[in-house]
Amino acid sequence: MNASELNVRVARKHAEALDICTFELVHADGHALPAFSAGSHIDVHLPNGLTRQYSLCNDPQESHRYLIGVLRDPSSRGGSQAMHELVQEGSLLRISAPKNHFPLAHAAARSVLIAGGIGVTPILCMAERLALSAAPFEMHYCTRSRDRTAFAGRIAQSAFASQVQFHFDDGDAAQKLSLPAAIGTPQQGVHLYVCGPKGFMDWVLEAARTAGWPADQLHYEFFSAEIAASDADAEFQVKLASSGRIVTVPKDCTVVQALAAAGVEVATSCEQGVCGTCLTRVLEGEPDHKDMYLSPEEQAANDQFTPCCSRSRSPMLVLDL
């Protein structure tokens, strides 16, 4: 365990909604936990050897616990299944210190929060933080049905309940989300935040960009992605700047896999290009970005890439390794 990791105990496991459990984590030795801000997540090392990222959804002023919500996903690669089936009250887990790649813009004149399903976890934390500071915001919460709506009671009892609109897929047409009305036209100082399944987020972000929202007023964080193979994928080479060593990356192999086979380990977590754990500087060459972590502007700079999924458009990439 490295210095930035913590041992925690599951103090409480609670069925929050259909197929959604919350896990209350406390320090295994009873110490206070590191501070975090709204939008933060932790890496959780699971009993089956996987590592997954989960947003913190309790009050950031609390130092005695972290609260995460986990959806049992039928298309899971083993992470959510492990949390639901293998992790129980009293279980010990290893986690990272909180990280925040999805922070609030505290100088915003107004915030629009849009959550899809389990994507409510960071959005709820943001809503509570904004309400505490009396900052103007509205929140839209979309779920498949009322029985799959986590934290509905917590929201109903909150001081900002009137600022939240619920939208159920199986509800009547009048209550369904009108995305054009929700996002409106871009205005200076108004920021939009979205979290949820990839298709939902793509839908919201595409609509916002089409409406003219500037990139710096759009905030989002993906936790899963489909890495699409392409007929254009080809073999290429990576060169390690520190040693000059060259490693060949076959067409059907990732950079991380090719480096590992050559004895060079790169830290990974999601292996889907969403968490940024493996982010590596590119000194020469043109990456073929397949991640959901970097913004379009960061991808266009071509000075870093995610070797867990991204490839190369040039015959060689020189990496800062």
Automatic annotation (TrEMBL):
Documented EC number(s): 1.14.12.7
One Pfam family from the record: Fer2
Superkingdom of source: Bacteria
GO molecular function, one term: phthalate 4,5-dioxygenase activity
Classification via InterPro entries: 2Fe-2S_ferredoxin-like_sf (IPR036010), 2Fe-2S_ferredoxin-type (IPR001041), 2Fe2S_fd_BS (IPR006058), Beta-grasp_dom_sf (IPR012675), DmmA-like_N (IPR054582), FAD-bd_FR_type (IPR017927), FNR_nucleotide-bd (IPR039261), MRET (IPR050415)
First and last residue of the signal peptide: none
UniProt domain FAD-binding FR-type: residue ranges: 3-105
Names of required cofactors: FMN
Keyword tags: 2Fe-2S, Dioxygenase, Flavoprotein, FMN, Iron, Iron-sulfur, Metal-binding, Oxidoreductase
The keyword Metal-binding is annotated on this UniProt entry: yes
Coiled-coil regions, chain positions: none
All copies of domain 2Fe-2S ferredoxin-type, residue ranges: 236-321
PANTHER family: CARNITINE MONOOXYGENASE REDUCTASE SUBUNIT, NADH OXIDOREDUCTASE HCR
The protein's name in its UniProt record: Phthalate 4,5-dioxygenase oxygenase reductase subunit
Gene (UniProt): pht2
